[in-house]
Amino acid sequence: MHPSADRRLSTLQRHLLPSSPPTSPATATSADSLQPSPTMASSSSSVFAAVPQGPEDPILGVTVAFNKDPSPVKVNLGVGAYRTEEGKPLVLNVVKRAEALLLHNQSRIKEYLPITGLADFNKLSAKLIFGADSPAIQDNRVATVQCLSGTGSLRVGGEFLARHYHERTIYIPNPTWGNHPKIFTLAGLTVRTYRYYDPATRGLDFQGLLEDLSSAPSGAIILLHACAHNPTGVDPTVDQWEQIRQLMRSKALLPFFDSAYQGFASGSLDKDAQSVRMFVADGGELLMAQSYAKNMGLYGERVGALSIVCGSSDVAVKVESQLKLVIRPMYSNPPLHGASIVATILNDRGMFDEWTKELKGMADRIISMRQQLFDALKTRGTPGDWSHIIKQIGMFTFTGLNSDQVAFMRQEFHIYMTSDGRISMAGLSSRTVPHLADAIDAAVTKLK
Ligand code: PMP
C-alpha cells in the first residue's frame, strides 16, 4: 500500500475509533493492523472486494485505448459514429433548428411521457420505416413504442418475445453487431447463429444462409439487419431478400428487423427500407427496432422505436398493453427531448427535406471515402483484391485484416479498429486515407 494511503487510514482510524485500544509504536501507522469490527467502516476493504474486473466492451473499448494514445497521427475507426471531413462529430443543422424551436416554445413542459413515449413520434417513426401508404399502418395493425435507441428497442422486443411468443430461439447472423447476443440472452431468449458472411468472397454466403434458415425450427425468430449490415457492410440484393422472405414465410419464421442505418446505406430513406417493406407488404407479422442515432446524429439522446406489426388491430392493442408491462418496471417511460426533435423534423415538410439532404451528404461522404481508400491501395499496389471496399455499403468496411494485422496497425500507425478488422468509414477523411492506406499496405506486406 502507498505510504500516504497508510497515513490517511490511520487518521481515519483516529476519527472513527476514538476509544480504540492503543497500538504498539511498530504498528501504529499500519492499516493492516486494524481489526475489523462489525461497527467499523474501513476504506481498505469492501463488501464488493471480490468483484472481478470486467473486460472493456470490444467496440467502445477501442475508443478508451484511442483516448489514451498521445500520438498526433492517431485515427479512431472503431466506433460507428459519423465524423466530418475535419474529423469532428456532426450535429445536423436541421437538428439545431428543431432544438431552437423547442427551446422557444414557452409552453413546453417536462412532465413524464406515457410509458409508450411520445405518440406523434411513434406514428411518424412507423410511417418512416414502413412507408406512409403501408397497409399495416392503415389497418392499425402496428403497435409502436418509443424506446432507448436501437439497443433499447431490441431489448424490449426480446423481452416481449420471451414472455409471449411460443418459440424462444432467435437466430442472428454470423457475424453480427457484438451487442446482439448479449441483448437477446439477457432478454431471456436462446441465441443461435445462421451463416451470413463468406470470408473467401468477402460477400454474402447466400447458400449457407438459406440452408440455415431452412433447418431452423418452424416459428423461430430471425434477426435481420434491414440494411448496411454491421459489421460486414454486405446486404442481400432485392432478389435475395425476396427468396429469404418466401422461405421465412413458408416456414412461419418470425422476422425481427434491426434498422440502425436507414438512409445511411444508399442515402435514400425509402431504398434502405425496401427489405422491411417487402415483409410488410405480404401481410405477415414482424418486429422492427429503429434507431435515430446515426441517421439523425442523435447518438447520445437515445431515441428509437420498437414496432410490432400484428395480424389485426385487436392483437396490436393487446401487444401494446404487454409492451407497457415490459417497459414500466425497466425504466418507467422514455426521455422526452430526443423524441421531440425527431417528431419536429418528421412533422414538417421543409425540415424533413432538409434532413434528407443532410443525410444524403453523410452517406455520400462515406461512399467517397470508400472510393478514395480503394484508389489509395491500388496506387500502392497493395497485395490482394480490395474491391469489397467499394462493394460493401453503410458505415463499415469489413476489411478482411486479421487480428495480428489490426494489432500491428495500432502499434505502428496508431490506427484503431475492432479486432475483427472492421473499420468505420465514417471516421475517415481525405486527410487520413493515405495514412490508413500506408498502414494496410505495411500490415498485409509484413504479416501475411
Ligand atoms: N443495431 C446495430 C446493427 C447497430 O450497429 C447499432 C449501433 N451500433 C445498434 C443496433 C444500436 O445502436 P443505438 O442503441 O445507439 O441506437
Detailed description of the structure:
- The protein has 448 residues and is an alpha/beta fold.
- The chain contains 16 helices and 13 strands.
- Strands 2-10-9-8-7-3-4 form a seven-stranded mixed β-sheet, with helices on both faces. Strands 1-12 form a two-stranded parallel sheet.
- Strand 5 and strand 6 form a beta hairpin.
- It binds 4'-deoxy-4'-aminopyridoxal-5'-phosphate (PMP).
Task: Please state the CA-atom Rg, rounded to the nearest Å.
Answer: 26 Å
Strand order of the largest sheet: 2-10-9-8-7-3-4
* Subunit arrangement of the protein: single chain
CATH superfamily of the largest domain: Type I PLP-dependent aspartate aminotransferase-like (Major domain)
What compounds are bound to the protein? 4'-deoxy-4'-aminopyridoxal-5'-phosphate
Tally of alpha and pi helices? 16
**How many extended strands?**
13
Which keywords apply here?
single chain, 448 residues, alpha/beta, Aspartate Aminotransferase, domain 1, Aspartate Aminotransferase, domain 2, 2 domains, 7-stranded mixed β-sheet, two-stranded parallel ribbon, 13% strand, binds 4'-deoxy-4'-aminopyridoxal-5'-phosphate
